[in-house]
Amino acid sequence: MVFGEVPMAKAGITFETMMRDLKGRRFSPIYILMGEESYFIDQIADYLAEHVLQPEERDFNQNIVFGSDVNAAQIVDLAKGYPMMSEYRVVIVKEAQNLRGTEVIEKYLENPVKSSILVLCHKNGTIDRRKRLVSKAEAVGVVFESKKMRETELSAFVASNCLSRKITIDEKSIAMIVDHIGSDLNRLVSVIDKLQLFLPENDRVIRPEMIEKQIGVSKDFNAFELKNALINRDVFKANQIIKYFDNNPKAGSVFAYLPLLFGYFQNLMIAYYAPAKNENAVAQYLELKGGWAARDYITGMRNYSGSKTMQIISKFKEIDAKIKGIDNRSIVPGDLMKELIFFILH
Questions:
Q1: I need a surface site. Which of 14, 177, 197, 205 has the fewest CB within 10 A?
Q2: Which residues does 146 contact at the CB level (< 8 Å), separation at least 6?
């Protein structure tokens, strides 16, 4: 999936295509923005707040309110108002999940004012699609469901965000940021904002050394380096990283890398079923971007047999269960991770 292509309620509409419509000033009378991922909801709402009207038009033609402070009837009254010396009137309702009595909005959507743009920002969940509010909004406007990104999509998100800023960033630097921050897109963007401040105009490249200095993530002891050590079956390097995290608890926990490492070996097992074992064939079978992206799996197949990979996957499941307290009353997560790493390498 390309960064930003978050599925929307109407088939074929994505975050990117929606933003293209907004930038082309192709507006709808109603936008319902809902879902678990607040980043895309904020991006759309902020764009509408900043670009539909000129600054001098906003005092009389734009209202930004909170769902806990108004009722649905008041929202409709605002949306029914005609613009004053402007083409549009914009009404944005933040925290619309707190709004009650939405039946009056359903009635309004039967014949919405074409010069009004009503935006309902419903965070931390979705509106039941069986409700008439959703179906009526879909009939005349846009319903956007902002879903949490999968772990496998975060690297592409960081890469694309940097590209949009004309910043170059390598795979290791991306991994360091993603592994340190996780799936919180707002925090990921905030970290890129911070790093951008330290980039000279003539060298717009984010490097591991900069991340280590500005964010506090070691360029030598992190999830990216641990995964590489396991791929190459480098026992010494893997043990160095484990020891580093034991001695530097503030730097993070190896336990947090479990999903990343499991994902690699899970894909490695799938790679064994590829019709051919060259880079292009494996990349196509795993639906990767190109042959270069399959190199880690080619290396992995040289260092781990199919049967060993299957045993490693089983060990991951055993360790995960123990971390959750199943058949384990005393072994701490750190020691369980050491047990897992030892099993993988030997």
A1: 197
A2: 6, 15, 33, 34, 35, 36, 37, 38, 39, 40, 41
User: How far apart, in whole angstroms, are the C-alpha atoms of residue 103 and residue 127?
Assistant: 13
Give whole-number Cα distances, 121 to 15, 49, 253, 264, 280, in Å: 15, 12, 35, 36, 43
User: Could you tell me which of 339, 268, 258, 276 has the C-alpha nearest to residue 309?
Assistant: 268
Q: Which among 86, 141, 143, 85 is positioned nearest to 117, based on CA atoms?
A: 141
- The pTM assigned to this predicted structure is 0.72
Residue 2 pLDDT > 80, yes or no? no
Selection from 124, 118, 57 nearest residue 93 by Cα? 118
Q: Rounded to whole angstroms, how far apart are CA atoms 60 and 90?
A: 10
Pair of tokens at residue 334: 């750190």
Spell out the residues 6+ positions from residue 190 whose beta carbon is closer than 8 angstroms to its own: none
Q: Can you state the percent helix, strand and coil of the chain, rounding each to 5?
A: 55, 10, 35
DSSP per residue over 32-56, as a string?
EEEES-HHHHHHHHHHHHHHSS-GG
Q: Which residue has the higher pLDDT, 299 or 152?
A: 299
> What average pLDDT score do residues 119-146 get?
91
Note the pLDDT of residue 173: 93
Question: Per mean pLDDT, which range of 40-44, 90-94, 328-332 is the poorest?
Answer: 328-332
- Residue corresponding to tokens 């049967």: 307
d(CA 296, CA 265): 11
Backbone angles phi, psi at 102, to 5 degrees: -75, 0
Task: Specify the 3-state DSSP secondary structure of 333.
Answer: helix
Q: Which amino acid is at 282?
A: V
Give how far Cα 13 sits from Cα of 18, 20, 56, 126, 321, Å. 7, 11, 32, 18, 39
Q: Residue 246's CB: how many other CB atoms inside 10 A?
A: 14
